[in-house]
Description:
By secondary structure, the chain is of the alpha+beta class. The chain has three helices and eleven strands; from the N terminus they run βββββββββββααα. The relative contact order is 0.19.
Amino acid sequence: MTVVRDDERGLVAWLAPGTERLTAVLPTGENLRAAAPDERFSRMRASARARWQGPGILRIAPPSVPWSVWLFWDEPWVFDGWYVNLEAVNRRDGQHLLTSDHVLDVWVSHDGAAALKDEDELAAAVEQGTFTEGEAEAIRGDAQAALATFEAGGFPFDERWQDWRPDPGWERPRLPEDTTWDFDELGGHAER
C-alpha cells in the first residue's frame, strides 16, 4: 500500500486497483470461501500472491483500537461507504503493520445505515475453535464500539476522507520476490 499519512492518529494507506498483495488461500490455491462453512476455519492455509480487484480502497488504522476503516468508492469516485474491519490491534514491526482478522465486520453505507457482516462466519469460527465464545462476545463489543465512534463522528469518521483522491502520479507498490508470511507469527489463523 502507499502511505498517505502516518501520525499519532493512525496510519492512512491507499491500496490502488491491481496492486499485488499476499492473501490467505487454501493449500490448493483456492479462495478460502471455497471451503465449506463448517470447515472454513479448521482447514490449513497458505499464502499466495494476488492482485487487488475492483476500485482502490483507503485503509485507515487508528492506533490502539481493534479495527480499521476501509473507504470504498464505486467507479468513477462515487463514495459507497465505510467497511469497518474488526481485527487485532495493529502492531508495528519495523516498516510493517501486523494484525489478524476477527471475521466479523461492519458496513456503514454512504447514508450512515449500518449493519453487521459475517455474523454466521464468526459463529462458525467459534464452533471450529478459532475463537472462544468469550472472544466472540468481545469482538461483537468491538463492533459496537466502532459504531459508537462513527455515530460520535470520531476519528477517522471526523475527516472528509470520502473526498480524498490519490495522486495520479503514484506508482503501485511492488512486493519483494521473497515475501511470505507465517500465520503463527502474525497471531492469526495458524496453519494446521
